[in-house]
Each structure stands twice: as structure tokens, then as C-alpha cells.
Amino acid sequence: MTPRPSLGLRARLLFAFALLCVVTAAAVAGAIYVEARNAILERAQDAAVQAMRSRLQALYPLPNPAPDAGELGEIARTVANGNNDAVAVYHERRSPAGPRRPCLPFGGPCRQGLDPGMIPKGLRREVADGNIAWQRVVWQDGPHLIIGTPLLIVEGDRPTRASGIEVYMMHSLAPEQRSIDRLAIFAWLIGGAALAFAVVLALLAARGVLRPAYELGRAARLLGQGELRTRIAVRGSDELADVAHTFNATAAELERHVKQLREMEADARRFVADVSHELRTPLAALAAVADVLEEEAAELPEAAGRAARLVSQETLNLTALVNDLIEISRFDSGVAALALNEVDVAELVRATLRTRGWSEQVHTELPAAVTARLDPRRVDVILANLVGNALRHGEPPVSVRLSADPHWIALEVRDHGPGLDGAVLPHVFDRFYKASAARARSEGSGLGLAIARENARLHRGDLSVTNAPDGGAVFALRLPRRAHDPDGGPE
């Protein structure tokens, strides 16, 4: 399964700080808003109730316990005091309706004074039971406070019984609502400012945390690319500084080990090259003696003849091994070079087969007029190795097929044997690797395919191997048509 992309550390820090800020600001601002709103409404409510009680004092003693509509209107006007809407109710009678008021915020006509039908039923029941009560309501022109109270008949200095007259006053809470709205806007502004501050704080924190992380990542990439002198600047004494110290110590230790390994590898390569060169002179003498023994083997006694032929063969094998080691040492030391020429690739293949006597054993598919700028000696070495392996270790028919495009040529060498085991394929081009333990002692050195691939790479091409679906190993050589020397310039 493809892993789902995750947010980066910077994004997670910003999200965490922003979320914390929003939650904190919302909780604090919400609590302050609710507390302030309740305080404003309660203060307005207490002031309106107190003002209504003060105005009711002017009505006592009641001139008429059973007032008509005109007297109810006078009671309503006294309670309203010109600033509020009021209605007085006595059984089925009520005070006349007041003037029509504009419907805020649009300004058109909305309602005509306070009507008993606008009063909540619960509030009316409370007043009918002889209690003063109030309730906040919202009409089209905004929030209001409706206060209701019964009028009592006073005998002497004390109220004795209910008169049946109910008075209701509606006080507008628009100024208080504007104050509450301003509080809400202020709370939003504080939340926005806090969010902006949290984002800035998160960016600063992310910068402090991510800069060492970025430096560590960059240093790790450089270290992986072979820049073993890469180090991180250590700042401060916190956990990130400890990570930087650890990285620097690890890099220094890695540099020391790699330096030791490189020195050991260089010594080993130098040793192989020196030994190989030192062996060439005695091997040349041995080869001359082996040639003489080979010529005289037929005239020697049987045992001596077999020994002479064995010495001659082993001398040839040793000479081939030394030559292969010298060639490998040239690749390792970087002194191998190309001698480039414009060649006919098909003719080069035919010459390789003809020189070794394989023309009759190998089937070829070689289109004409395929030319390339190559090192013919090194391509000959590659082909000889591939075809020789196919003839020795595969089964006929062995074929060589050439194909080309404007930029590349491809040579495919195939046999029809059992192919290579899956465990062998990754190691075919390893040095001294032989696919079968039974071949551990054979005429091959185990360096041929390694040298073949090095020659292909020297041309900036490649050599690969696969098994054909219908059996047999397939070696594919791919080379550029205009090869360049390893230094990058044309030869």
C-alpha cells in the first residue's frame, strides 16, 4: 500500500498552536462575553423594574377601582412616561392603542404600541396571581423587556386586595444589545489578534526547531553522497545540540573507518597490481619452457608427457589470470582508457568469431551499415567472453543479434541451455564468482564477466543478463554510438 502523505512538522506546529490559541481565546472570550451580557441585561432589567415601581407610586390611591378605557389609558401613559410602550388591562377592557412605531432596522411601520396579545401567556398568569414579573422577548424591531404588575387597592397606608387592574410596560433593550454586539466584535478581534500572534509564535518556534532538523537532513544527504567531512554547527546545549554532537561524532568515526577501508583497499589493489606485474617476467619464461615441453610431450614417456601437457596448460591458465588481474587493476586505479575508432559493428562481430574459430558454431543476425565510434579491442574482449561462455556452459544454438537506433547499439548473445539459477543472476558479474561449485577449478579465472562489464561501463554503456522465457541465458550489451573517454572528451 502507498503510504498516505502526512503533514510536515512546520504545518503540524502551526496547526497545534493555532488550535490551542483558538480554543483558549474562544473559551476566555466566550466566558467574558456571557458574563458581561448577563450583567448588562440584569442591570437594564433592574433599572426598568425600579423605574416602573416609582411611576406606579403616582397612581395611588386609585381614583376608580373599576376604570373605563380612558382611565386605563391615563394609567398606561403614567407608567410609560413617554419613553416606553405600556398597556393597562381591566377584565375585558384595555387602554387605547398607542401610536404605530417604526420597525427597526428598516424604518417602516411595524406595530402599534403594546398589545395584550403580544404579552407571553406565562407572564400574564404570573401577574394574574398577584406577582410582579418580567420577561425578555424579541420582536422585529429588536429585543425588549416586558414587565407586568397588578394594581392593589390601598386602604389606609397599606394595600389590602387586588383591584383587577394589570399594567404591562415594554422597555426596549436596543442600547444594551448594541453594547453586547460591541462586546462580541471586540471578542472576535481579540480572537483574531490572538490567532495571528499564535501563528507568528508558531513560525518562530518552528524555525527554531526545524532549522537544526533541516541542517541535519542536509548533512545526512551529503554524508550519504560521500561528503564525509560534513559536520553540523552546534548551537546551545539543548536536546538538538546533543543530536548535532552525536551526528558529528558519528560522521567523524565513519570518516575514519572509510579512510581506513580505502587505504586497505588501495593497498590490496596495489599489491595485486604489483604481484601481477612481477609475475609477468617469470611467466614469460615459463611459457617458453611450456611450449618446448608441449612440443616434446609426444616423444616423452606417457606419464612425463601427461605432466608436460598439464604444465603447459596450467601455465597458460596462470598467464590468463595474471593478465586479467592486471586489467582489473587498471580499472580500479582509473587508468583504463579508450582507443576510439569508427567501426562497422557487424564486421567487428564477424572478426571476433572468425579469429577464434566460432563462425560455424554461432548464428548471427547482423544488419549492415551499423557504424559506431568504439574501442574495437575492448568490444572484442566483451564479445569473446560472452560467446565463449555461451559455447562452454550453454547449449546450441548460440546466437548473436545486433540492433541499433540513432543513439545506441545493442548486441544480444543467447544460448539455449537451462539458463541461470535465480540465486546466481545477481552475482554473475561479481569478481571470481562461478555459478557452479563444480567449476571452481576450471580454465576460467572468474574475472571474465567482471572485465566485460567494466569495459561496457568504460564506454558509458552497460551489460546485463536475463533468462529467456523459453530457456537459455541472454546477455545484452548496450553501448552508445558515439562513445567518449572517461574524462568526458572525445577520444
Could you say which overall geometry the principal axes of the C-alpha atoms support?
A: rod-shaped
Average pLDDT, rounded to a whole number, is 78
Low-pLDDT residue spans:
1-5, 104-109, 437-442
User: Strand sequence of the main sheet, in spatial order?
Assistant: 2-1-7-6-5
Determine the strand fraction and express it as a percent band: 15-25%
C-alpha end-to-end distance = 49 Å
Largest sheet: 5 strands, antiparallel
What percentage of residues falls in helices of 4 or more residues?
Answer: 40-55%
Order of helices and strands: HHEEEEHEEEHHHEHEEHEEHEE
Class of secondary structure makeup: alpha+beta
Compute the gyration radius: what is it?
A: 53 Å
- Total count of helical runs of at least 4 residues: 9
What is the number of beta strands?
14
